Amino acid sequence: MNIYDISKQAGVSIATVSRVLNGSSSVKPKTRKKVLDVIEKCGYTPNAFARGLGLDSMNSIGILCADCSDIYLAKAVYYIEGNLREGGYNCILRCCGYDLPNKQRAVNLLLAQRVDALIMVGSSFIEANPEDNKYISDAAAQVPVLMLNADFDCPNVFCTMCDDFKATLEATLALLHSGIEDILYLYNSRSHSGLKKLSGYQAAFTSKDIPINKQLIQFYQGSREDIPGVCRFLNELKDQGITFHAVLASDDMLAAGAVKYAKSQGLTIPDELSVIGFNNSLLTECSEPAITSIDNHLETLCSQLVKICISTLNGEEMPQKTIFSGELIQKATTNLK
Amino acid sequence: MNIYDISKQAGVSIATVSRVLNGSSSVKPKTRKKVLDVIEKCGYTPNAFARGLGLDSMNSIGILCADCSDIYLAKAVYYIEGNLREGGYNCILRCCGYDLPNKQRAVNLLLAQRVDALIMVGSSFIEANPEDNKYISDAAAQVPVLMLNADFDCPNVFCTMCDDFKATLEATLALLHSGIEDILYLYNSRSHSGLKKLSGYQAAFTSKDIPINKQLIQFYQGSREDIPGVCRFLNELKDQGITFHAVLASDDMLAAGAVKYAKSQGLTIPDELSVIGFNNSLLTECSEPAITSIDNHLETLCSQLVKICISTLNGEEMPQKTIFSGELIQKATTNLK
DNA sequence: TTCTGAAATGTAACCATTTACATAAAAAAC
DNA sequence: GTTTTTTATGTAAATGGTTACATTTCAGAA
Predict the structure, then answer these.
(1) Could you check: is the Cβ of residue A7 within 7 Å of any atom of nucleic acid strand D?
(2) Going by C-beta distance under 8 Å and a sequence separation of 6 or more, which residues neighbour residue A134?
(3) pLDDT tens for each residue of A325-337
(4) I need a surface site. Which of A105, A246, B167, B253 has the fewest CB within 10 A?
(5) In 3D, which of A301, A314, A324, A315 has the Cα closest to residue A119?
(6) Is the CB of B320 under 7 A from strand D?
(7) B15 CA from D4 C1′ (Å)
(8) Across the interface, do A48 and B113 touch by the CB < 8 Å criterion?
(9) Are residues A198 and A265 in the same domain?
(10) What is the pLDDT of residues A139-176, one digit of tens each?
């Protein structure tokens, strides 16, 4: 069943059938109806591959994501997919982990699938060594590249992000203002955004002329899902004599681990330990007490990103960077002024 | 840059280039090298659309999921995508919510994209009214349909699932054996699998000749992410005079709400309230105490499902149903024998 | 009625592959 | 050194759309 069959049965040419299907140029209402009736009767669906070949596009967007089972990235993928769907696009999803070769491979495979654009979800796509980011600019030479929560300067790369630096700066200042100075900064990702948060933390101390205790900057190497592991890690720090009265974590999972740590030590929250997480995810509500967290308006970020994506594909000129502010959502693990 | 350009530069025919690219029939090593060198030099990538048109396949699988931001479904999508990727397939992801029209629409759009198979992630795809499931059998008439955690009898539909009935039966029996009879069954989905769990719960009582208190079967209508809402809901039940000493929840989010409820009432866990969740997700570890939960071996389920998918596409005869057993993972919210 | 221009429709080229079949080259058999 | 068989390669016809351009149709003007 192809366009020829339809054209024969409707007694028109294939061009007319095609026009009816695409609503491109004008077709006489009577003809349109005749064609639509035949299409309906036959249950005909145009062949997407042939259409793709002719138009050089199948309206599909490649979504790259280190790990779509991550509670935060999953939400991002969800919002992005939803917005693209609304816009009439298909999403080809590829999880690629955190290693460069896999990321490169994933990009190449998506480009080979002839996606219209590439969306990189999460800051893990930017490598510390600038030369390693060639894979991004190479991709951008072929299709628009959209990055969520990453900051990368390159033509045809569009970044939509939360100002992690500012958000962390403000959260740290809020803790300092409430009189807590021994704040543990706990992070689990050396990604771009993890480091921006770290500098926000540091900037807060600098702005107050308070020296930074390097022991209070700790990197957690364990699995991203191992909350008991985070708890153990903090207990080990404590055993090493490192003391702190607040934990500022680069994500909610680490914050949840900190809450568990407080429980294991019999510390009251927030009096003896304040905890601030990042992303304001479901985990903040699951934990008891509910965790204060920095919300980065993920839904807005994603809808904006997709808007830019689609507009760019339609040939509109779009801003290369779109930056939103984070927002500290106070819950029960802090007692800030 | 197309196959003709390559064939010209390599001094061979396009058929030979095609054969080199596909490794189909034999090509003289010398010729192969010559062609590969030209391909390499030109950075040529075959046009996936033309390939799709010729082969009537772009090696892509449609993944349908009610909501890929759901902590459990996201993991399923992750495992499925990973296995498909390993097998050389692309994933077209479409979230479609829980309503029939959207599900139908999503299926049709994926079929219009000419996917090789359709994977439905989660039990939400089966409608209560059998007639409404025609959209599944219609789809199965075109491509293999694989269902995760759903049980549907239809040619060309392959189901991979956990025996929710048995798992819930065993969990309920374990509670009964430890002397708790007023067990609240709390669920938030009238999906297929939600109802199977319910019947497991009921069967446990029946097998022990204990009457079932209908007040202890409660449906939570709120959002799937609203843990405080679950807590409020349970408090309302308490206010209505409904008492219980255990909560068996159809997922971990509800169980986390139950733990919050115990806190709000000052009940000790597990002495005054036992809690059992479902899925053994990250939430079980985030909650304090960690929640006893039924693990349904999602990773195994998914890898099996994809294996069946790929084998079926390769023309192998595969079993229509694959059933695994769940496993009760004891943590700190129960004190079972 | 004829002319003019716009609207509707048709023709045919093009998109870039795969592959059945034909043919040429090489290897094996005689 | 032929003939036969096997292996390697080429030719050309699909695959099923889109669309530039050519042609027809038709309404309104002269």
Answers:
(1) no
(2) none
(3) 999 999 999 999 7
(4) A105
(5) A301
(6) no
(7) 27
(8) yes
(9) yes
(10) 999 999 999 999 999 999 999 999 999 999 999 999 99
Q: Is A21 on the interface with B (CB under 8 A)?
A: no
- A69 neighbourhood in chain B, CB within 8 Å: 74-75, 77-79
Q: Are both A229 and A275 inside the same structural domain? A: yes
Q: Are residues B292 and B174 in the same domain?
A: yes
Does residue A247 surpass a pLDDT of 90? yes
**Looking at the domain assignment, is residue A181 inside a domain?**
yes
d(CA A335, CA A292): 9
Q: Would residue B335 count as lying in a domain? A: no
> Which of 126-145 (A) contact B at CB < 8 A?
none
Residues A176 and A262 in one domain: yes
* Percentage of residues in chain A having pLDDT higher than 70: 100
Are residues A199 and A285 part of one domain?
yes
What pLDDT score does B2 carry? 94
Domain of A19, in residue numbers: 3-44
What end-to-end distance do the CA atoms of chain A give, in Å?
A: 70
Instruction: Compute φ and ψ for A249, nearest 5 degrees.
Output: -110, 150
Tens of pLDDT along A34-56?
Answer: 999 999 999 999 999 999 999 99
**A contacts of B259 (beta carbons < 8 Å):** 288
Q: What pLDDT digit, counting tens, does each position of A189-204 carry?
A: 888 888 899 999 999 9
* Alpha carbon distances (Å) from A217 to A123, A181, A183: 20, 13, 9
B93 and A84 in contact (C-beta within 8 Å)? Answer: no
Same domain? A255 vs A110 = no
Those residues of chain B that have pLDDT short of 50 are: none
> From CA B321, how far away is CA B157, in angstroms rounded?
9
Q: Is B27 in the same domain as B150? A: no
Q: Cα–Cα distances in Å, from A69 out to A142, A231, A297?
A: 29, 22, 19
- Same-domain pairing of B202 and B281: yes
Provide the pLDDT for residue A239: 97
Cα dist. A56→A109, A302, B161 in Å? 17, 26, 40
Residue A329, in any domain of the structure: no
The CB density around residue B167, as the number of other CB atoms within 10 Å, is 22
D28 C1' to A38 CA distance, Å: 34
Interface check B64 vs A, CB under 8 A: no
A10: CATH:
1.10.260.40
pTM above 0.90?
yes
Kindly state whether A50 is in contact with chain B, defined as any CB-CB distance less than 8 angstroms.
Answer: yes
A28 CA: nearest nucleotide by C1': C8
Residue B145 is part of a domain; what is its CATH number?
3.40.50.2300
In a domain, A132, yes or no: yes
Nearest to B174 by CA among B210, B204, B206, B199: B204
Which nt has its C1' nearest the CA of A51? Answer: D17
**How many domains does chain B contain in total?**
3
